[in-house]
Design brief:
Length: about 475
């Protein structure tokens, strides 16, 4: 009699323990898991979208800068070159800073945020896939539609995704209008109504949630001490039921080991879309926020200190007319007259500068424009140099005249000679002496002889 009663007690006790441990999650806890997954899916999709758009934005910004540079090199008006120079300096500096520092840093942040979010979502997806693999109408299932008891009111993972759109968030093969508006308390991911605790009143044979001795995933006693976690730390197996994690004030949970994957994903910086200059400024006022614009204006106006405030406004007015000047009419409209070569492999061949988006073609146009501008400047410098040489020669002659004119009699020697007819001391004509030695003639036959001798020199300068 004792043995049957003891056996019955043991069986009953074991049955009771199993019943306590194998309950399904109620709808509130299930929805909370899906909402947290949605939060990180939105974050993941956001950084992925921003990174996907980064190359096209960088290209547009480069095209914008190259157009300004080509226009500058093709511009001959000193006033327009001055206006363009300040804009070009500001745009170029901003572009180099952005592409050389800001964009790589932003890309690295996005990669870290995407990695952390995807890692966490993978854990949640694995849990939902296993726990919601199937259900049995009688008693089996991990996700209940209510907490009354076990039975037919259970959902598989696929049914959860139909029940709540957010339940598709952890599955990266699915898309949806995920939202977390009004879902969480400030400072973390705790549900507005508090931490959910709902489980079914009766067992549901969800062996995944079992924490009983020698039941489910636990073979030895002490589930509380084993730190068994599910869904990336959202659920922790306890001695009786799985407990939903404390997600309040997540920034302070750095030392909480059971939610480290979630903490990393939550605190990872989600850098927004790149802020690149992809269009031409319509007014000088738009550029005042760029430090190098004010610096360039300071140089152009020979200001002793960096321009700011009223001084900057005055400098803009001096160069552009006013801070709200229409740069389209003043500068950018001139791009229409600069066209790509008609014979070219690019699809943008023959188009005006404003319509060219081919970076290779723009670079080619910039090289050509820069070389042409350099050649023109070199020719101008040579002409100025020749003029300066002539001027210096004239100055030397004037000095010699003064030196010789002040001499009398025997003092008129060396580079000076005495004119007996005029009875004055004058400089010797070196050219005459040389010509006497070589040809026996002088340049005094007429003014045309000077033109004849100098003409080859000027021709050589022009052909150089």
């Amino acid at each position: 009699m004792f043995l049957p009663l003891t056996l019955a007690f043991i069986l009953a006790h074991g049955r009771l323990g199993t019943a306590v441990q194998e309950k399904a999650l109620g709808p509130q806890t299930t929805e909370a898991i899906c909402d947290v997954a949605a939060y990180f899916r939105i974050k993941l999709d956001g950084v992925a979208s921003a990174q996907a758009a980064a190359p096209s934005k960088a290209q547009a910004a480069t095209v914008n800068l190259l157009r300004i540079k080509v226009l500058f090199e093709r511009t001959k008006s000193p006033a327009d070159r001055q206006r363009l120079l300040a804009i070009l300096a500001a745009t170029e500096a901003e572009h180099f800073k952005t592409t050389g520092h800001d964009l790589p840093a932003a890309a690295a942040q996005r990669l870290a945020a995407a990695k952390a979010a995807a890692y966490f979502l993978g854990s949640v997806h694995e849990y939902l896939s296993i726990a919601g693999h199937k259900k049995v109408d009688s008693t089996a299932g991990c996700f209940a539609t209510n907490t009354v008891g076990a039975g037919a009111n259970h959902r598989t993972y696929a049914e959860l995704q139909t029940w709540k759109t957010n339940c598709k968030a952890a599955d990266l093969t699915k898309t949806g209008d995920f939202t977390t508006t009004g879902k969480f308390s400030a400072g973390g991911l705790e549900p507005i109504g508090g931490r959910p605790t709902d489980v079914t009143a009766n067992e549901a044979k969800c062996r995944l949630h079992s924490g009983a001795d020698n039941e489910g995933v636990v073979q030895n006693a002490g589930a509380d001490n084993n730190g068994l976690l599910l869904a990336g730390g959202l659920l922790k197996l306890g001695a009786t039921t799985p407990a939903f994690a404390d997600l309040s004030q997540l920034h302070s949970k750095q030392a909480q080991s059971d939610i480290q994957a979630m903490y990393r994903a939550y605190t990872a910086a989600a850098t927004p879309a790149d802020n690149l200059e992809t269009g031409l400024p319509s007014t000088p006022e738009q550029l005042t926020a760029k430090p190098l614009f004010a610096t360039a204006l300071s140089k152009l106006t020979a200001s002793k200190k960096p321009l700011a405030g009223p001084e900057l406004t005055a400098a803009i007015a001096d160069i552009y007319g006013k801070p709200t000047a229409d740069l389209q009419a003043q500068l950018w409209s001139k791009m229409n007259s600069i066209k790509a070569p008609a014979e070219h492999s690019s699809e943008d061949k023959g188009k005006p500068l404003t319509d060219i988006n081919d970076i290779d073609l723009l670079l080619e146009m910039l090289v050509n424009a820069s070389v042409d501008a350099a050649i023109g400047l070199s020719a101008s410098d040579r002409c100025q140099c020749a003029d300066a040489t002539t001027e210096r020669s004239s100055n030397v002659d004037e000095i010699k005249d003064k030196e010789c004119n002040g001499k009398k009699g025997d003092e008129c020697t060396g580079e000076c000679e005495w004119d007996k007819e005029k009875e004055t001391c004058k400089p010797k004509n070196k050219g005459e002496e040389e010509n006497k030695d070589k040809t026996g003639t002088t340049n005094k036959t007429g003014s045309n002889s000077f033109v004849i001798h100098k003409a080859p020199l000027w021709l050589a300068v022009l052909l150089f």
